[in-house]
């Protein structure tokens, strides 16, 4: 039995014999000129080992701590979104004159145009988006099937479709309302469903933004000077993402209620 166990352990590269404290961390590999070699012995993917320490310093931490940071970032985004769609938006509705908030809310579908432009960029600047797709093994748990080009392509199509449904759909509904035209129930729901889809899609593509923060990944050809983005920018982008998520969720809820009332 013991020889069989030894054979199995050796077949796995003998990694189990390496004490936890002796196993090179991603940061150690990143800081070394022999990053690829360290990656082979430490289990760190070569693509990550060759990256220098990010401005955030997260990729110099052990993978367990990196994973904890990623989890914390998602919790921050979720908590911020809940806070925005709840107390903050309710406070604004009470603060503004009656009807102002709802009228302002009706302008939110313009965000659909932003998603359309972003989706088109997935194809016109595909390399830039592929360069921020997390490689296998990132944070110690990222093992999503499919290539970077595949995920960049399908999310681009989804952004174009969702953005069109939100922006054009809301525009046509507004035009139909102005002309007092009857709109089928299913068509009335398109902007709301599109906003809900974009809300989910924004969460889906968030790991790419997180990867830029934790590993200093750059959008090749789009990032100024192809240099890592400062930490302060990531904080601002995180806050803007909370606003974006809150707007999409709030608009979707309001539009669904309005469509239900129009039956």
From TrEMBL:
Is Electron transport one of the keywords UniProt gives this record? Answer: no
The alphabetical list of record keywords is: Membrane, Signal, Transmembrane, Transmembrane helix
Q: Where are the transmembrane segments?
A: 67-89, 110-133, 153-178, 190-213, 233-251
Nucleotide-binding: is it a keyword of this entry?
Answer: no
Q: Where is the signal peptide?
A: 1-16
Q: What is this protein called?
A: Uncharacterized protein
Origin species: Cladocopium goreaui
